[in-house]
Amino acid sequence: MVISRRPLALIAAALFVAAAAPALAGPGDKALDDVRILSADDMQGRAPGTPGSEKARAYILSRFAEIGLSPLGDRFEQPFTFAKRDGSTVQGTNLIARIKGTESGKAMVVSAHYDHLGVRDGQIYNGADDNASGVAGLLAVAEAFKAKPPRHDVILAVVDAEEGGLRGTRAFVAAPPVPLATIALNVNFDMLSKNQKNELYVAGTAPFPYLKPILVKVATTAPVTLKLGHDTDADGKENNWTNQSDHYAFGEKGVPWVYFGVEDHPEYHKPTDDFATVPQDFFKRSVATVVQASQALERDLDDVAKASGR
């Protein structure tokens, strides 16, 4: 999640404890392992251009191979460069895969950023929720679509350098691997694992009301409480998530989006955002929910494209 997200002063000071409940069977059985490995100290907070970032990419690529994903183009790695505030240049790397649909037509992009804040003042910011959890959700979605192929192409974008500027996604939409007009929807995951109230939010139905019936139907059977919102200024601009993660870069290019995430918690952008603070039962159910929602959105992608004029 980008650093500019809504203030922590609004967040209740509650501590999360990892649940001891057994893992649920079903989509994303490896999701907990993905979060644990990506948020370990040896990843050094996954800041762009660091050895920890490279190690995280190597792990994600190993999971791509395990799932049986194919690159979109010659290779998974899509490098880009950006300038930091101090004037130095950093190379970031997006990882892009595709699951080909059984029919031709529009594509759906599923995205999650893998970078986090790195090491600051000798402390590692491991980013278990932000956003190892989102990457784990994306990988679970990939597993589900490989097991039951989609009708439309599903592009999996594990992007770099989201923190502080959405750099990886802006590089993606500036030079998309497929014509931008063929992308009917972006489904973005950023922070899926920590909520005391059993709540996961999906933003995007206010700006794109034709998505609401699909997601309301998903909510009726979702394993967590799936709530629609955080996509208008009605409750204050700090609660509007429209520009708070990678989906915003797609929106700037006219691509409809939905964004799944939890509200902020005491570990947000803190060194305490570790795997040990992930409530495991909730996270497993959150992953199952985003898999269910992604499948529903892909099934109705032609209607989404028609409603949006794409």
From TrEMBL:
Residues 94-292 form the Peptidase M28 domain. Pfam families: Peptidase_M28 (PF04389). Keywords: Signal. InterPro entries: M28_fam, Peptidase_M28. SUPFAM superfamilies: Zn-dependent exopeptidases. It comes from the Bacteria. Residues 1-25 form the signal peptide. Gene3D superfamilies: Zn peptidases. This is M20/M25/M40 family metallo-hydrolase. The lineage of its organism: Bacteria, Pseudomonadati, Pseudomonadota, Alphaproteobacteria, Caulobacterales.
